[in-house]
Amino acid sequence: RQRDGVLTGTFMTPTGDYRFLEGNITDSTLYLSTFDGNYSYLFKGSLQQDGTIKGEFFSGKTWYETWVARRNERAELPDATSLTYLKEGYEKISFAFPDISGKSVSLDDPKYKGKVVILQILGTWCPNCMDETKFLVPWYDANKDRGVEIIGLAYERKPDFDYASARVKKMVEKMNVTYDILIAGTSDKESAAKTLPMLNSIVAFPTTIFIGKDGKVKKIHTGFSGPGTRQYYEQFKEEFNETVNSLLQEVVPPQEDFTAKR
């Protein structure tokens, strides 16, 4: 959006957005930037005679790339529910990771049996993950009594448990997180994927996995379009609630207790 010389907006990618950006326009050149205390982004773009915008992107002190924009009213990003999926032969996800106190937690624990479970693959270093957490915290507090749980799987920069748990504990306290967050591994995507071998890959942080009351994976959403994307963020929230509501309404046939029959 442009108001006089002031410009606001964001850039969306298949795995997330660049959050709230603000800047100005000077002599047919746009400047958009943000700094959240951890990450700094700067986008520059100059309007060309053919109507395209030729731009540059700076991230932090070292990352640099160029970009070109062309107006396309029909432009679309890939379906966020098609990028990450279970490998053939799998219906469920299984794991056992420690929480921040070192206690091992599994989907087989009684707390999660017969409930809808949302897995949040995240990292405290990931801005989009923090935006998703800001959405999930109040949502969970308002919905946890409906038979739904959230488990965060944190992948941090170092393989050291004390380092990772300290980072996660700080985030939990700062953001008032009341759902469980486990220390799952490191942020390297190849290493992270090895901790959940039933997935085709870890494409992006965050990734959100919806598990039905029967323990089977029903949907996987890659990336996160945060509040900076306006209508796309509202669309995400609407689809999130529709998915959970649908899963809560599913009727799971009771399992026979063959041990008792013997």
Would you count the extended β strands for me?
16
Helix content: 10-25%
> What integer value in Å does the Rg equal?
21 Å
Major sheet description? 7 strands, antiparallel
Strand content: 25-35%
Structure description:
- The N and C termini lie far apart (70 Å).
- Mean pLDDT is 94; it is low at 258-262.
- The strands form four sheets. The protein has a seven-stranded antiparallel sheet, with no helix packed on it. Strands 14-13-12-15-16 form a five-stranded mixed sheet, with helices on both faces.
- It has 262 residues and is α+β, with helices and mostly antiparallel strands.
- Helices cover 24% and strands 32% of the residues.
Protein topology:
Elements: E1 2-3, E2 6-9, E3 12-13, E4 16-17, E5 21-26, E6 29-35, E7 40-47, E8 53-59, E9 63-69, E10 96-98, E11 104-106, E12 116-122, H1 127-143, E13 148-156, H2 161-175, E14 180-186, H3 189-195, E15 207-211, E16 217-222, H4 231-249, H5 258-261
Parallel strand pairs: 12-13, 13-14
Antiparallel strand pairs: 1-2, 2-5, 3-4, 5-6, 6-7, 7-8, 8-9, 10-11, 12-15, 15-16
Keywords:
262 residues; 5 helices; seven-stranded antiparallel sheet; 16 strands; globular
How would you briefly describe this protein structure?
The protein is α+β, with helices and mostly antiparallel strands and 262 residues long.
